[in-house]
Amino acid sequence: MRIQAYPAHSSSFKSNVMAAVIPYCFMSTSSALLNKTQINNPFDIPRFSHKPIANPSLKDICKQGNLKEAFQSLGGLLTDGSSIVTWPDEGFAPILELCANKKALKQGQQIHTHIIKHCDLCQSVFLSTKLVFFYGKCRCVLEAEKVFDKMCHRTIFTWNAMLGTYVSNGVPLGALEMYSEMRFSGVPLDSCTFPIVLKACSTLKDLRCGAEIHGLVVKYGYASVLFVVNSLVAMYAKCSELNWARRLFDSINEKEDVVSWNSIISAYSSNGLSIEALGLFREMQKAGLATNSYTLVAALQACEDVTFKKLGMEIHGAILKSSHYHDVYVANALLAMYVRFDRMCVATGIFDKMDEKDSVSWNTMLVGFMQNGLFDEAMRFFHNMHDSGQKLDKISVLSVLATSGRLGYYLNGMEMHVYAIKNGYDSDVLVGNTIIDMYAKCCRVNYMGHTFDKMPNKDFISWSTIIAGYAQNNCYIKALALFQKAQMEGINIDVMMIGSILLACIGLCRVSLVREVHSYLTRRELLDQILQNKLTDAYAECGNIDCAIRMFESINYKDVVSWTSMISSYVHNGLPNEALETFYFMKESNVEPDSVTFVSILSAAASLSALKKGKEIHGFLIRNSFVLEGSIANALVDMYACCGALKDAYIVFNSIKSKGPVLWTNMINANGMHGRGRDAIELFSRMRDEKQVPDHITFLAILYACSHSALIDEGRKLFEMMQDEYQLEPWPEHYACLVDLLGRANRLEEAYRVVKTMQIEPTSEVWCALLGACRVHQNKELGEIAAKKLLEMDPDSPGNYVLISNVFAASGKWKDVEKVRMRMKGSGLKKNPGCSWIEVGSSVHTFMARDKSHPESDKIYEKLARITEHLEREGGYTAQTKLVLHNVDEEEKVKMLHGHSERLAIAYALLHTPERTPIRITKNLRVCCDCHTFCKLVSKFYERELVVRDASRFHHFCYGACSCGDFW
């Protein structure tokens, strides 16, 4: 033989074809041989005998399936010798068949040895064929080939046995090569040959070869043989030719064979045509045909999603009433169906009641927990699986690795990695890729890289996973280097890999690298809509909004992702008005926004403090049945809080049943920015009572709240709790909050000690907090130290120069002020001008300090003059010119104070809003003391509630008082 054996990797041959083949193998060796040569009896015994000599007790024992007793009986026969020598076929055949059924390779090899010893195996077609079948069942393709090659004569049953061996052991190409040799040698085919060869075509999805065999089936006159037709139906279904499969099924006159129905139902089910499959299942029931386990499994597989839930439960009910409930294959199909329905409770109940569980049962449950996001349950189930003694296979290993990655349990992942190495699974590419992904998700970059380097075989997914792992773990340079290496290796570049590279570009904030990637994609003609959307994001994240706009405009067919990318780009670059405008254009283009779009647009409304627009978006979400949870709920709470509507934020917060840590943190932060430190601490306590674990961001929010409410002792305790109870190392931002908290309370020396004793190097934010406190409390010595450090660490921030300049100006050091301003000018930096905006009607109006660009500028200034005069006369208002840190005369200082942007916004609001309605203003800088006093008097004498959001916090002015208690 010249047939090359292939590694066995598929399941045992499950077709009922072999069942048809084997009975023929028991025929006498007087059957016609392929080369038509007469067999001479090697024992010179008459051909026919009135009674078989083989011991009938051996046959009976073999039928009972007791291998040990069968061998004992055989031993007695071998000792006696006569019957075995005279009739070796009848003597050895039953026990060889039993070894095949038991897959008892060693015992079968012993029988093989006895056969060689007691007869001429080359001349015994019957026993040789039985040996081929035995080795096929035991997955020993090479041994089967050796027996087959040594045979002097072969019947069609021998050829069929060898064909079946190839197919059942995952060597379909070997089966087709043998089939070609049979045709070339003129071997006459029978009806059992075709189903085996068609099975090989199905496995390879070789439609051309399958169609040729179909022609031979017709030519040989087997087109009316039912099991051949069923095999043809299965072949066409596997090759996705359902029209031919259905035509063959419809051509069957008497559809009373359950196998025919199973074939066509499975055909539709496996090709995703669930409605057609279940329709045939109904027809079969109406025809009164009894279903078997294969029918039920196919029907359950057709219930592919929750839309088939009712029908799936009906089938489950029918199974409970039948005798198939205890069939492990049916039970496994039920488990898989309920996993797809996300009904893990029901699946668990079925699993617990199963009398017999195989590896499929355990893996179905394990994968089900993982796919449905129940990672903790998946890990507990895995431990139960291990404790029960169930051996882990490749699917189990993959599931546990993936679950470990999602949970961040790298120790569990490492244990599974070791198990994979011990059991040889680590050489599998899919397992290797999953190990890399697990280490990436657990932030174990070194282990991830080592695993990749040791992989014997790598595919493009391996490269994509490792590059993504480095990019997601902030190893941007390594990600770019590996990308270049992948190109040199000739690896296919896919969307995922480009997405990871763009993430690395964003992390490095290198627009030039984004442009290089853009050029690469253009040259390779790889620029599809997905990558255009990603490039829009990348340009925007790197601060180049113009390139982002051009990329967005170049997209011919903009989908929801395209529009959302552009909206997010505007929000990220501080252009909330443009984001809102883009959102309205999106709706005009009849593109329906999704949850991600709404999160972005709510962020834009929050930036503008545009409460009316935020409420419109909230109403749209409710009308369109969006589920208000997760990221949308977080965005809504943040929007209402940023728009000054804390009560509305609480309404949304209290309506959410399942509150995650992010939602709690947002609500704590909302109270903090509104100066309600006590309420923030109470929320923090409730969060802990709900067993929610606070993270770094949560502690940042609660420390911020304490800082703006002068809760010094509480803030210090929380700072200690973060380290001692939750083992969270403080970030520089936490230290900045603590320094700000102490500094506001005029505990400057203590704040300075905190800075000097920090476990990490103080950042510019920390020195900025100390410097701001020094300016308020006029501590010149510490102020100069902080100012010097600040300029050394962050010389490119215009805000730092302004703060330092103000510190010197407050001390009357005008020469130092001039030096700082000249240095700032020499660095090409500019101070951000004061800007306020207010939502009136459907528009957001923006005002700059002393700005006269508004269309109604004259009316606004006239109204502001009347307001100021009224407050001076009735409220005793006097401009606090000492706050103007410019070396100009008093009159100019008064003009500068009167022209602050929030006053222009207040004047416009009093012109165009109904009496007694609240006025909501947002400012980009901190409110000065003079404007703070002005706002308190406006709230008192004009009977208006003023809600002013500055760069630091919210101020609620009402009846001449402010919610901050003059502490901000």
Terminus-to-terminus distance: 92 Å
Please report the number of helical segments.
52
Beta strand count: 6
Strand order of the largest sheet: 2-1-3-4-5-6
Shape: elongated
The major beta sheet can be summarized as: 6 strands, mixed
Structural class: mainly alpha
Write the layout of secondary structure elements.
Blueprint: H1 17-25, H2 56-64, H3 67-80, H4 82-86, H5 88-102, H6 105-118, H7 125-137, H8 141-150, H9 156-168, H10 172-185, H11 193-204, H12 207-220, H13 226-238, H14 242-250, H15 258-270, H16 274-286, H17 293-302, H18 309-321, H19 328-340, H20 344-353, H21 359-371, H22 375-387, H23 394-407, H24 410-422, H25 429-441, H26 445-454, H27 460-472, H28 476-488, H29 495-508, H30 511-523, H31 529-541, H32 545-554, H33 560-572, H34 576-588, H35 595-608, H36 611-623, H37 630-642, H38 646-655, H39 661-673, H40 677-689, H41 696-707, H42 712-724, H43 732-744, H44 748-756, H45 764-777, H46 780-793, H47 798-810, H48 814-826, E1 835-840, E2 843-848, H49 857-874, H50 890-898, H51 901-912, E3 919-923, H52 929-941, E4 946-949, E5 954-958, E6 961-962
Parallel strand pairs: 3-4
Antiparallel strand pairs: 1-2, 1-3, 4-5, 5-6
Question: Characteristics of this structure?
Answer:
elongated, 968 residues, mainly alpha
